[in-house]
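Q&A FORM
Asked by: J.P.
Topic: structure of Protein SYM1

PROVIDED:
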Amino acid sequence: MYSRLLHTHPIRTNMATTGTLFALGDILAQTLGPSKETADATPAQALDRGDSPPTDNPLARTARAATYGTLYAPLGDAWYRLLQRRVRGTALRGTLLRVAADQLLFAPAGLALYYAAMAVLRGEPPATAAQRVRTELWPTLCANWCVWPWVQIVNFRWVPVEYRLGAVSGVAVLWNAYLSMRNAASVASITASEASHAANAVSGSALCSERSER
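REPLIED BY: S.T.
REPLY: Here is the structure written out as tokens.
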């Protein structure tokens, strides 16, 4: 059934598969993430307890992950097909060249796109999206290089091209959970910084008013 759908409706099937698996990764991340008490707290309450502030509604967060995965799927599938057409060589040499291209070209661009897109989907301004990319890209890329070259060697060597995005997305449930947790931590850090600046501004304003009254 799945194989037939991949051949008859490859783009829609990959979109549905990848969107679902991104959603599952986010649900897993939320299950392993902060406690319900922390998630339900306001930013001020979380800061008072020394916790990271909550990011947003869990359902909205999962919906954003699913949306990103759905929209990313055509790009990911096109990339795998491009590598298959353009990168030639013996079985081993072709596989290693595809892995190198994937990890040195597509992985940095894909991760930057992920953080920027998640910020935009959350309604954050471009400056915040750019800050998210600058902060998170390098550490996430280093973690990526510890995992994905080995997965992609197997993927490029033995998995048919039409199944590659689905195979990667299946393995990527845990990776998507990791990305989701990093993204949520980045959102919480920015929220904490904004809350701290707001609190300092209020405190400073109150102090100035007190001094003027004296």
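FOLLOW-UP: The CA atoms of residues 51 and 94 lie 48 Å apart.
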